[in-house]
Structures are given as structure tokens and as C-alpha cells.
């Protein structure tokens, strides 16, 4: 697992995942829409493909030749209706099948462990796309790790717990979550699992 494609690598958690992968000596390929969003410290260290996750040809360029894939697609602070995360995931899975890559980790939200009516109204649209994404991931036939974090905190690394099919707590450090997206690819116990993760408090 030496070469990774990381989608969403310029977001808060994505940056942590990229930093950790580089620290572990991985070759990282990233898809970015806009060169200006690429952190300065990544410029000489990662392989960058400029494009859009909604464009299959762009996604294919990123996925070709890698050993594993990390999907941390987000909408920044936009909570309006979207299909970008689910459609982007569909394109990534299609590219993985095309190039014979089987292992990936994908970020959704611990709201998916709750009944939809219990999710705060402001997150209904995002949650709906996360649900579409989860179904696409589960139906992929690939070795997925569906990671459903709670509130992602800008806090230092701390001991955390992982459970299947439920959330163990209310927050997770962005550093620990970023690391987990990389490490879980090399742990086959997590393959085909829906994973809850949270800081032990």
C-alpha cells in the first residue's frame, strides 16, 4: 500500500490524512479543483491532478496506478441539497473497478447511525447525500471501510475507540481521524465494515 489516491485532501481532515500518509512514506495523488487550495507544504510532495470529482476522466487519472483510495469528500460549510459526495464516490468506485483497485476508506457521518428524523434539520440534505453515498459504498463489491465520524474537532491527538455499526462518542480529533483513514486500509479486520470512531472521554 505504497501509493494512495486521496480525494478531499485539502479539507480539514483531508489535510491531516495527506500529512500522515506522507510521514509514512506513501506516494500521494490528489485531485484538486483549484491550484490555490493546495497547501504550500504539499506542493513539492504530492502528485496533483487538477480537475473535478464529477468528471470521470479526471477521477480516472487520479486512481490509475494506486494501491488504495481515501475518500474524504465534503461541502465545507454548505449544508444545502447536494449529490456531489455520492456522485463523486460513484465515479471513484467506477475508476477503481476499471483499474483493479479494491481497498478504500470513505468518510460520511455518525448521523447515519440515527433515525433520519432525529438528525438536526440543518443537516438533513447533507445526511441524505451521505446515505446515498453509504449505499453506493456498500453495493460496490469492493473492500470498503465506511467511516462515520461524529463532530470532527480541531483538537490534539488523543486515545480513541472504534466500534462497528454504532458510534462510541461525540467527537474525534481531526488528526486521529486523518490517520485512521490511512491506517484502516492496511487492517483487513475493518474491511466491509461500517465504522464508528470517537475520542475516549
UniProtKB/TrEMBL annotation:
One protein family per Pfam: NAD_binding_10
Superkingdom field: Eukaryota
GO molecular function: biliverdin reductase [NAD(P)H] activity; riboflavin reductase (NADPH) activity
Record InterPro entries: NAD(P)-bd_dom, NAD(P)-bd_dom_sf, Polyketide_Oxido-like
Ranges of residues in domain NAD(P)-binding: 8-187
Residue spans crossing the bilayer: none
Protein name in the entry: NAD(P)-binding domain-containing protein
Organism this protein belongs to: Chironomus riparius
Taxon lineage: Eukaryota, Metazoa, Ecdysozoa, Arthropoda, Hexapoda
Amino acid at each position: 500500500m505504497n501509493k494512495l489516491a486521496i480525494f478531499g485532501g485539502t479539507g480539514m481532515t483531508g489535510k491531516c490524512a495527506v500529512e500522515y500518509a506522507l510521514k509514512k512514506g506513501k506516494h500521494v495523488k490528489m485531485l484538486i479543483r483549484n491550484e490555490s487550495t493546495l497547501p504550500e507544504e504539499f506542493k513539492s510532495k504530492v502528485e496533483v491532478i487538477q480537475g473535478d470529482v464529477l468528471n470521470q476522466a479526471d477521477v480516472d487519472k487520479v486512481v490509475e496506478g494506486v494501491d488504495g483510495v481515501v475518500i474524504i469528500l465534503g461541502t465545507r460549510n454548505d449544508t444545502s441539497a447536494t449529490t456531489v459526495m455520492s456522485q463523486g464516490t460513484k465515479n471513484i468506485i467506477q475508476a477503481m473497478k476499471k483499474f483493479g483497485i479494491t481497498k478504500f476508506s470513505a468518510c460520511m457521518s455518525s448521523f447515519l447511525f440515527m433515525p433520519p428524523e432525529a438528525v438536526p434539520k440543518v443537516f438533513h440534505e447533507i445526511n441524505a447525500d451521505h446515505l446515498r453515498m453509504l449505499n453506493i459504498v456498500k453495493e460496490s463489491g469492493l473492500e470498503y471501510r465506511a467511516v462515520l465520524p461524529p463532530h470532527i474537532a480541531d483538537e490534539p491527538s488523543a486515545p480513541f475507540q472504534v466500534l462497528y455499526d454504532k458510534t462510541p462518542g461525540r467527537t474525534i480529533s481531526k488528526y486521529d481521524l486523518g490517520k485512521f483513514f490511512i491506517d484502516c486500509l492496511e487492517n483487513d479486520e475493518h474491511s466491509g465494515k461500517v465504522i464508528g470512531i470517537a475520542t475516549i472521554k
